[in-house]
Amino acid sequence: MINIIQEHNLTPDAARAAAEQVAQKLAREFDLACQWQGDVLRFERSGIEGALTLLPQQAQMQIKLGMMYGMFAPAIQSKVAEKMRKVFAGA
User: Do β-strands 48-55 and 58-65 pair in parallel, antiparallel, or remain unpaired?
Assistant: First the structure.
């Protein structure tokens, strides 16, 4: 399980737009289906499932990897954390 927490100072609309950017990158790289459920963006495909939850001043990403993707967890976590840092913190 990959858990990433990213602090932010964005408005709810800007945070949602930032989450969309992260989701689009993940969807392209891993062929994921994404869907909003309130303030939670859920994504999945065979072997990968997770959610990006938007809270005031914080975005929380959880990714559950199947066995095939598990060996790539450090690389996936690094890429996702970097993208979240860029879009939520403006780094």
Answer: antiparallel
Yes or no: say if 87 and 9 are a contact pair by the CB < 8 Å rule: no
Distance CA 10, CA 87 (A): 10
- pLDDT digits 0-9 by tens, 39-74: 999 999 999 999 999 999 999 999 999 998 899 999
pTM beyond 0.85: the answer is yes
CB 5 within 8 A of CB 60: yes
> Helix, strand, or coil here: 63?
strand
Q: Is 26 exposed, middle or buried (0-12, 13-18, 19+ CB in 10 A)?
A: buried
SS3 content of the chain, % helix, strand, coil (to 5): 45, 35, 20
Cα-based torsion angle of the residue sequence 54, 19, 2, 69 in order, rounded to the nearest 10 degrees: 150
As a whole number of Å, the end-to-end CA separation of the chain is: 25
Q: Rounded CA gap, 61 and 42, in Å?
A: 10
